[in-house]
């Protein structure tokens, strides 16, 4: 599916300066996932509605595991899909607001992860049930610190 600008974004672009504004759309996101992953697609839609153009790569589970390892994600930091944006790795159901903060603060780090697939996170929001979860900043030495709590 091709990314589409929402009507709201288009209206804002027209209101606040036309093409110049449109150039400031959010950074492109490239996602690696297994073809059958529904919650991965849910997260991609979440990122698209935040203005990110999203490109998906469906890969075999073995290749996905290698991509995660090569990205510097130990098994306890992994989730379903792995994405890259602005030179950072985004693992799992990280909210777009945290990706935006990462891209503006530009910490010296590998990226962000939401390990596992907590209920209520973007793409895992199927019903009224929500569990609290943390977004972790993954440092270049593999250590983590809490970046956000939801
Ligand atoms: Cu998932």
Brief descriptors of the model:
alpha/beta, seven-stranded mixed β-sheet, 5 helices, 30% helix, 23% strand, globular, binds copper (II) ion
**What is the overall shape?**
globular
Class by SSE composition: alpha/beta
Give the ligands present: copper (II) ion
Sheet bearing the most strands, described?
Answer: 7 strands, mixed
Total number of beta strands: 7
- So how many helices? 5
CATH class, named Alpha Beta
As a percent range, the share of helical residues equals 25-40%
CATH names the topology as: Glutaredoxin
Integer average pLDDT: 89
Name of the CATH homologous superfamily: Glutaredoxin
User: What's the architecture in CATH terms?
Assistant: 3-Layer(aba) Sandwich
From the N-terminal CA to the C-terminal CA, the straight-line distance is: 29 Å
Low confidence ranges: 13-23
Q: What topology, given as strand order, has the largest sheet?
A: 2-1-3-4-5-6-7
H-E order: HHEHEHEEHEEE
- The radius of gyration over CA amounts to 15 Å
Number of domains: 1
Give the DSSP E fraction (strand runs of 2 or more residues). Answer: 15-25%
In words, what does this structure look like?
Helices cover 30% and strands 23% of the residues. The protein is an alpha/beta fold and 150 residues long. It has a seven-stranded mixed β-sheet, sandwiched between helices. Strand 4, helix 5 and strand 5 form a beta-alpha-beta unit. About 7% of the residues have low confidence. The chain binds copper (II) ion (CU). Copper (II) ion binds next to helix 3.
